[in-house]
Amino acid sequence: MRIAISLVAAAIALSACGMSEQADDGTDQAAPATETTTTTTAPPTTTTQETTTTQQTTEKPASKPSAGTKKVRIVDFTYQPGNITVPVGTTVVWTQLDQSTHTVDFDDGTKSGDMAKGDTYKRTFDKPGKYPYVCFYHPRMTGTVTVTS
Ligand SMILES: [Cu+2]
To answer: pLDDT tens, 58-102?
Structure first.
């Protein structure tokens, strides 16, 4: 029994020594290391934010429309709703739900091309104004997108 106890005691003493040394080393190194890391990290974080801001500014035209999306359905040979008013930067999405082929052809020359059932067509409006459009196959099918600033 005495041998066993002394062995255990020795083992505890050894492990305690080892642990305390590691703990001391770790604590001593950790303090300055953390300060250094914090100080070093701070400027890059600011730089990252500036970079992010710049990127956001660049990406705004692309990300803005996704926030402002207006949907128009093409149903029964009509655009529903046919006349819409949206703020500048809005992306309008036409969804074609008729069996018959339709198009969204703007007076300014922008055209969707043939749209079969289930097709969608998107156009982002970055400038205020009136954008009338018509179906190439059905001239009575008309609509207007009014873009406000
Ligand atoms: Cu049509």
So the answer is: 444 544 444 599 999 999 999 999 999 999 999 999 999 999 999
Q: How far is the CA of 100 from the centre of ligand 1 (A)?
A: 7
Q: Measured in angstroms, how far is the CA atom of residue 23 from the centroid of ligand 1?
A: 78
Gap from CA of 138 to ligand 1 centroid (Å): 4
Distance 121 CA to ligand 1 centre (A): 14
- Burial of 5 (C-beta count, 10 Å sphere; 0-12/13-18/19+): exposed
How remote is the CA of residue 73 from the centroid of ligand 1, in Å?
A: 12
Q: Residue 49's Cα: distance from chain center in Å?
A: 17
Give the total residue count for the chain: 149
The sign of the CA dihedral 96, 101, 104, 109 is positive
The Å distance, Cα 2 to ligand 1 centre, comes to 99
**Per-residue pLDDT tens digits for 12-40:** 344 443 444 444 444 444 444 434 333 34
CA distance 74 to 19: 74
